[in-house]
Specification:
Layout: E1 2-7, H1 14-28, E2 33-40, H2 41-44, E3 54-58, H3 64-82, E4 86-89, E5 102-105, H4 114-122, H5 126-145, E6 148-151, H6 154-164, E7 169-170, H7 177-180, H8 189-195, E8 202-206, H9 216-230, E9 235-239, H10 255-263, E10 270-272, H11 281-286, E11 290-293, H12 302-309, E12 314-317, H13 320-326, E13 330-333, H14 338-349, H15 352-366, H16 371-390
Parallel strand pairs: 1-2, 1-4, 2-3, 4-5, 5-6, 6-7, 8-9, 8-11, 9-10, 11-12, 12-13
Amino acid sequence: MIHLFMNALAATAGGGLTYVRNLIPQIAARNDVMATVLLDAGLRREFQTLSNIEFLEWEGPSRPALRFWLEQRMVRKLALRSGAGVLLSAGNFAVWNSPLPQILLSRNSLYTSRDFDRDLRSRGETRLWLDNRLKAQFAKWSIHAADRVVAPSQSFAEELQRWTGVPISAIHHGFDRDTFLRDHSTLPDGVRRKLECTSGVLRLLFVSHYNYYRNFETLIRALPLIRRKLGPRPVRLFLTCKLVPGANPGAYRPERAAVLVRELNLSEVVVELDSVPYSLLHHVYRSADIYVTPAYAESFAHPLIEAMSSGLPVVASDLPVHREICGEAGVYFQHFSPEELAQRILAVAGSPELARGLGQAGMLRASAFSWKRHLDQILSLAREVSSESQS
């Protein structure tokens, strides 16, 4: 039996939360692994029923530099004290001078994205740009410090390897459709009312908090082009966020996107659902006709699999990782071209045969992803590094 110490303190939003929420129950269901998990106190409440995992909680200081320094010291001490055989660092940054063999999960594509650098500079976001450059350097050092590094897709693994010169393993994140559909609770009344549309409306969906690299503005600019071609048929874009300051994780400012919505007279077209509980997202997917993602940086993209598993045709930006995840279940566009995005959406909307074929291919493709398989591969890697450390 192997004993893992998992540092999950970085799981605060987005894909990091999705990863931890799905992996921890998988670990708890196994009888060939012990686990000690260090995580934020707020997240601990989600795992109250799991009694065979030791949870350690920490609420560190808000200042990033101080938090990073204290976290490094604390994780080293707790990992050694736990008696674990392998440290699993789940948040892009390794523990320096780890007392245990260490597997680093590296999944932040912003550290290698030239488009993100250019975007921040064009927006005058000097502080964010400097912060990202500093974190990128720590991430690169972390890759060199870890015994093994794992990326969630082959595309991103190759990108990291070009960036660092270090061999990177690719292990796809998983998906469990039964778990995703398990919660039969109804959506909050406010969200449900916003989703209600008259028949004939083309319903587009994009699941994301507002941030720059998800490229909201290109999607918004495509909407007038879609409206003109659709003629009398209405279109609605549903967002699982609000385009108002302070309503999204991180320091991204949504004002530019909100102004664009008003300038293009799209206030009735863009429907801001606000954040929807993850357990209820399947209701939102089933209310849509087409799933759209214009992101210009990505390392995996869980919503693509969630959309495919719901039978939605996918229109995605032409990133290698999107093609890797969706394959023939998606159609693709140049990620800064609202014209090409509009064309792809109109092609799917105008062809029931194409939409149906993409939806069927997506459901088949989504079934290829498995959290059990993901954990099997992580544990195999953990046993390998543990064996190497003892030889």
